[in-house]
């Protein structure tokens, strides 16, 4: 998605060979009009899948997921990373280990917000090693619902996440695909479709 790539080039900061900082529009301050375009793009890519619900994880997945939900006219559920005071029982849970942060979180969604008839689109901001997405897949599958696809805002294609999800037979649609972050530069994998536009 060209608009997103341009935003990454103009505002992103390469912190290391592994980490891209995009705090000015995605992970801290949020650009609503960019999120609007992102939501529209996810809705277009998954229009034929009969999606009934979007599942994401707090906090940075929520903004793009909400905009996709608006365009698809379906509810958005986010997995919590901490136990809520009011969300005490009847939970679907999975363990998610972050290699970046070297910590493990138990993530959860209330059972009542997913059922076996749901056709779910999972959305997240970053795809790195895929642990968050795999945890969400596990939760959706526990409910008996079907994972129809995974929508990612920024995929770091040089890490293992995409490969792991595709090995499970899942469709992954990433709006920006980063081939490398070496020498302080962002190198994208450009899809043919984008080159033709
Ligand atoms: P994984 O889920 O794909 O395995 O990712 P990993 O454990 O490596 O990442 C943990 C957190 O760091 C996730 O956010 C993820 O979105 C984020 N992250 C991974 N790589 C990058 C990167 O290059 N840049 C930025 N800005 N974030 C990255 P989180 O802890 O869930 O945070 P948040 O959603 O509350 O913002």
TrEMBL record:
Residues the record lists as binding 5-phospho-alpha-D-ribose 1-diphosphate: 128-132
Transmembrane feature ranges: none
EC number: 2.4.2.22
Annotated keywords: Cytoplasm, Glycosyltransferase, Purine salvage, Transferase
Matching CDD domains: PRTases_typeI (cd06223)
Broadest EC class assigned to this enzyme: transferase
Protein function: Converts the preformed base xanthine, a product of nucleic acid breakdown, to xanthosine 5'-monophosphate (XMP), so it can be reused for RNA or DNA synthesis.
Protein name: Xanthine phosphoribosyltransferase
Organism of origin: Neobacillus cucumis
Lineage: Bacteria, Bacillati, Bacillota, Bacilli, Bacillales
């Amino acid at each position: 998605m060209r608009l997103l790539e341009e935003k990454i080039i103009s505002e992103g900061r390469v912190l290391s060979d592994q980490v891209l900082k995009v705090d000015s529009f995605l992970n801290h301050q949020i650009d609503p009009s960019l999120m609007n375009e992102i939501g529209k793009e996810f809705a277009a890519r998954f229009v034929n899948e009969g999606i009934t619900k979007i599942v994401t994880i707090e906090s940075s997945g929520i903004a793009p997921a909400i905009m996709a939900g608006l365009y698809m006219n379906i509810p958005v559920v986010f997995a919590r990373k901490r136990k809520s005071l009011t969300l005490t029982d009847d939970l679907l849970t999975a363990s998610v280990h972050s290699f970046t942060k070297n910590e493990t979180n138990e993530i959860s969604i209330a059972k009542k917000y997913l059922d076996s008839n749901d056709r779910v689109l999972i959305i997240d901001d970053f795809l790195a090693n895929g642990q968050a997405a795999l945890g969400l897949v596990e939760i959706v599958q526990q409910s008996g619902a079907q994972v129809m696809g995974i929508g990612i805002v920024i995929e770091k294609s040089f890490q293992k996440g995409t490969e792991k999800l595709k090995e499970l037979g899942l469709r992954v649609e990433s709006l920006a695909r980063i081939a490398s972050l070496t020498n302080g530069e962002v190198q994208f994998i450009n899809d043919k479709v984008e080159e033709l536009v």
